[in-house]
Amino acid sequence: MKLPNANDMELRYQVIDLEASLAEEWLSPELMSALRSENMRGDLTEQRSEIVRQVKAQVVGYLRSRSFNSRRLADIVNYIRLNPESFEEWHKSDTAKLFAPPVFRNEKKASGYFF
């Protein structure tokens, strides 16, 4: 069995940190944890497997260019939003609330009313 060298460990820590950032800002820690567990067990559904593939692409892209592709991340979130039955963890998370801002209601009584 080969022991990991310092470069392998540094890369591993970078990936863990990148995944945590993606979880906090886009995917939710709850969903990321579930996807990680299912991926390790090998029992991802087709839809969840697609998200894992795209998250891996984001991590690799970041390691190459030092930035995430926010357009692709928005696409991932939209896919998750449109498939609530497959991503219940996300829909119940605080992260999901970041993508559902409060609805502004224009009332005639309010000052600054717009037509």
Structural notes for this entry:
There is one protein chain. Helix 1 packs across helix 2 (29-41) and helix 3 packs antiparallel against helix 4 (70-82). The protein has helices at residues 6-27, 29-41, 46-65, 70-82, 88-91, 94-97. It has 115 residues and is an all-alpha fold. The model has no long low-confidence stretch (mean pLDDT 89).
Number of contiguous helices: 6
Beta fraction: under 5%
Query: Termini distance?
Result: 71 Å
Radius of gyration: 18 Å
Helicity range: 55-70%
Main β sheet profile: none
Q: Tell me the total number of β-strands.
A: 0
The SS-based structural class is mainly alpha
Average pLDDT rating: 89
User: Which regions have little confidence, pLDDT < 50, spanning 5+ residues?
Assistant: none
Q: Name the helix and strand elements from N-terminus to C-terminus, one letter apiece.
A: HHHHHH
Shape: elongated
Key descriptive features of the protein:
elongated; 6 helices; mainly alpha; 0% strand; 115 residues
Brief overview, please?
This protein is mainly alpha-helical. The protein has helices at residues 6-27, 29-41, 46-65, 70-82, 88-91, 94-97. Helix 1 (6-27) crosses helix 2 (29-41) and helix 3 runs antiparallel to helix 4 (70-82).
